[in-house]
Design goal:
9 helices; 36% helix; alpha+beta; carboxy-lyase activity; 2 domains; single chain; Alpha-Beta Plaits; ATP binding; ATP-binding; eight-stranded mixed β-sheet; Ribosomal Protein S5, domain 2; binds (3R)-3-hydroxy-3-methyl-5-(phosphonooxy)pentanoic acid; four-stranded antiparallel β-sheet
């Protein structure tokens, strides 16, 4: 049957990887498994308005509005995404769509909206499928939402649920898959459920090298095989650390993962560097602060110059004071965003 038309609304968060995904093969299959903390504040809200067509269209028909204004800059990315998901959602060509989207974080803040954006859009499409097939159960719904999100952007597969997600097959993790992310299936200490992530906006400009190109450069990379093994091992090493709340070992693994990601960029052919002088200033400040105060703060990095500062809730007050007085100077226009671990996407 055909639905008369309507709207679905979802809010999906961004996420920050602890064990990084860098390297893939078609169709969006990761070279190694990754784990991320789901964020709370940094999120995309998306409305999918749909209307039935008289007859199925060749290409998916859609228009996009960002913050209420027609916006075609995402058009190619969304068109590719809709092509990719069509085999799994055959009804999509029988409707036309208006996609209205907005992000909680500032545009061109250097925070990628692809993870939260693709997850929010996938959840809207899946709600439409569930309306057509109401017998769909919740676990199928969430798994398929992550599966579709992955086809939009690999890391988006980890933005559907929280607090901790794993994407990618690992022999020691039952239920893990390259096709979708799962909720981290091992014990998680309370301390990580309340973790903070302050995103220090070092450089808000667009990256010189996209993550798509970066993933590709892992194909002929001299260190690729070892990097993939390292990620697998770090994922295993994190298991007791996440269960016990062992912050010292957590810090060693997480910072090493961030630097390994950037080391892959610096040693690919062609090589490139996404860190900026202020990124390094901040990393040195963090190391000095940790040494002086013994406070368990650490950093991680995405594919960009911004620094994610991770810390537990019981020291949030003093750390945020320190960010304001010491780290804000290294951020573009003094800007940073306080975020924390969240529970995943919600229907709105
Ligand atoms: O999802 P993509 O293709 O934008 O890749 C993102 C990769 C990193 O953010 C650098 C690491 C990760 O696991 O999120």
């Amino acid at each position: 049957h055909k639905l008369p038309g309507g709207v679905y609304k979802w809010k999906a968060p961004s996420n920050i990887a602890l064990v990084k995904y860098w390297g893939k093969r078609p169709p969006q299959i990761p070279a190694n498994p990754s784990i991320s903390l789901t964020l709370d504040h940094c999120a995309t809200r998306t409305e999918l308005h749909y209307e039935p067509l008289e007859s199925a269209s060749e290409d998916c028909q859609f228009e996009i509005f960002l913050d209420g204004v027609a916006n075609d800059s995402f058009r190619p990315k969304i068109a590719t995404f809709l092509e990719r998901i069509a085999p799994y959602l055959p009804f999509t060509r029988h409707y036309k769509y208006r996609i209205e989207t907005s992000n909680s974080f500032p545009h061109s803040s250097g925070i990628a909206s692809s993870a939260s954006g693709m997850a929010a859009l996938s959840l809207c499409f899946l709600s439409l499928e569930r309306e057509l097939f109401p017998e769909m159960d919740e676990s199928y719904f969430l798994r398929k939402a992550s599966f579709l999100s992955r086809l939009g952007s690999g890391s988006a597969s980890r933005s559907t649920e929280g607090p901790l997600m794993q994407w990618g097959y690992h022999k020691e993790v039952a239920g893990s898959s390259d096709l979708y992310a799962i909720k981290y299936p091992f014990p998680i200490h309370e301390i990580f459920r309340n973790f903070h992530d302050t995103i220090l906006l070092v450089d808000k400009g667009s990256k010189q090298v996209s993550s798509t190109v970066g993933h590709q450069l892992m194909h002929d990379h001299p260190f690729a095989e070892n990097r993939f093994l390292q990620a697998e091992r770090n994922l295993e090493k994190l298991q007791p650390v996440l269960a016990d709340g062992d912050l010292e070992r957590f810090i060693a693994i997480v910072e090493s993962e961030a630097l390994a990601l950037h080391a892959m960029m610096m040693t690919s052919s062609p090589y490139f560097m996404l860190m900026k002088p202020n990124t390094l200033e901040i990393l040195n400040k963090i190391w000095a602060y940790r040494q002086e105060t013994r406070r368990p703060v650490c950093f991680t990095l995405d594919a960009g110059a911004n620094v994610h500062l991770l810390y537990p809730d019981h020291i949030a007050g003093e750390v945020q004071q320190w960010i304001k007085s010491e780290l804000a100077d290294f951020c573009e226009n003094g800007q940073y965003i306080h975020d924390r671990v969240g529970a995943g996407a919600t229907s709105i």
